[in-house]
Amino acid sequence: MKRRAAVERNTKETQISLELCLDGSGQTDIETGVGFFDHMLEGFARHGLFDLTVKVKGDLQVDDHHTVEDTGIALGTAIRQALGDKRGIVRFGDKILPMDEVLALCALDLGGRPYFSFDAPFSPEKLGDMSGEMVREFFYAVSYSAAMNLHLKILSPGNGHHMAEALFKAFGRALDMAAAIDPRVEGIPSTKGSL
């Protein structure tokens, strides 16, 4: 049975409908109103082999903050729900990913204890129609909503578009690794017996 989750999040600032299948093939249908963000989410899903549908109506007349952050909250919630009791998962995942001059690292643990470390030189300047500083806010929201330990680091900086894209793709690959079912794992992958 494929691991899926559907999340609805409605506030005065955003209305979000999100569906995630961890055991997909990289199919996407994404409309957030922020074109660059759509492109990043598509890269995450395609390279993680997740099926992802995201529909967002946000207060973009203000700025992109609520749209990007709240989508991160919804995605993190969907990841946590789709993982269920985490029985049989690998749990840990990592990826070092190059994109032209940029080298990005992502390492994560689906152990149920949220922690976020981000070392990447983004500024408030726009990446397309998305503020560069929103890259950090998105991943922070994902990590805490999913209850994952997430470390992201740009090892070799460069073009802002390349840095963002490398992080989103590395996150997709690392999450796919961590969420994978390992037939050798019996029960929950923790000495505590629960995650």
TrEMBL record:
<dbReference type="InterPro" id="IPR020565">
    <property type="entry name" value="ImidazoleglycerP_deHydtase_CS"/>
</dbReference>
<comment type="pathway">
    <text>Amino-acid biosynthesis; L-histidine biosynthesis; L-histidine from 5-phospho-alpha-D-ribose 1-diphosphate: step 6/9.</text>
</comment>
<keyword id="KW-0963">Cytoplasm</keyword>
<dbReference type="Pfam" id="PF00475">
    <property type="entry name" value="IGPD"/>
</dbReference>
<dbReference type="InterPro" id="IPR020568">
    <property type="entry name" value="Ribosomal_Su5_D2-typ_SF"/>
</dbReference>
<dbReference type="InterPro" id="IPR038494">
    <property type="entry name" value="IGPD_sf"/>
</dbReference>
<dbReference type="GO" id="GO:0000105">
    <property type="term" value="P:L-histidine biosynthetic process"/>
</dbReference>
<dbReference type="InterPro" id="IPR000807">
    <property type="entry name" value="ImidazoleglycerolP_deHydtase"/>
</dbReference>
<dbReference type="GO" id="GO:0004424">
    <property type="term" value="F:imidazoleglycerol-phosphate dehydratase activity"/>
</dbReference>
<protein>
    <recommendedName>
        <fullName>Imidazoleglycerol-phosphate dehydratase</fullName>
        <ecNumber>4.2.1.19</ecNumber>
    </recommendedName>
</protein>
<dbReference type="GO" id="GO:0005737">
    <property type="term" value="C:cytoplasm"/>
</dbReference>
<keyword id="KW-0368">Histidine biosynthesis</keyword>
<keyword id="KW-0456">Lyase</keyword>
<keyword id="KW-0028">Amino-acid biosynthesis</keyword>
<comment type="similarity">
    <text>Belongs to the imidazoleglycerol-phosphate dehydratase family.</text>
</comment>
